[in-house]
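Pilot study result, target chain (294 residues):
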Amino acid sequence: MERSDTPPTERPDASTPAPARHADPGAPDPGPRPTARTKGPVVLRGRQIPGTTTDQRLLDTRDSGDWVHTDPWRVLRIQAEFVEGFGALAKLGPAISVFGSARTPQDHPEYALAQRTAELLVEAGFAVITGGGPGIMAAANRGAWQAGGTSVGLGIELPFEQGMNEWVDLGVNFRYFFARKTMFVKYAQGFVVFPGGFGTIDELFEALTLVQTGKVTTFPIILMGTAYWRGLLDWLTATMRADGKISARDLELIHVTDDPHEVVAILRDAELSRGTAHPLGEAAPFDVALADGT
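Predicted structure:
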């Protein structure tokens, strides 16, 4: 650790010239540092000092409404989103987050599979959480609602209007993706991931990272649809694992199936390992041989 030449009991005087930012022998003496102004925990000097005070801007009714778009105000909005989400979901109980494409039509087999999976999850004692939109999300919310369970939708503000699907009993809309993502993980005991696009992949790999790094434990991640996910699993095995970017143990974090009953069995087995449920069946981690095509 570097030692200062200034005795510990003394502080440099405010008028002490500051060292030049660029060591230029020919540069003029910058003179004493300007007077500082504190703004909460922030210290401002020179051009950083605003021409008005916070109180003045607050009380001056002639001021514009632009202040609501500044970063400090966004912090309060972010805080409010977490408070609202925590308050709405605090008493939810055991739940599973279900992800999948918003573009899946009602007559697609994956829609029916998501609906049936949600029904079985409710029968096993879980609430169902989705992104609240159409497609797979609506199918899962519909299955949970029809089975008499708690159907949760965590919506997000998007440039295009999406809205909350009609099967959501408990809905929370978010401005910020990171606040919404926290709720998906915090109040769920596992993820069930149906075929989807970028958003689905984003949620999948974020969950895998959280489990791999130990941020969440005993958190099953189940891929529904072996045909859809085979290419990704092949790449994870033949490229990422083969190149040493992940380990064989990392691949065991993933379960893959086409059977909604197996989904419930895996989740109930995880609940048993936490000491909160009885097993319905054996958990079946992703078999690496599947990705090898054997």
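One observation from the pilot: Residues 1-23, 278-294 have pLDDT under 50 and may be disordered. A full batch analysis is planned for the follow-on phase.
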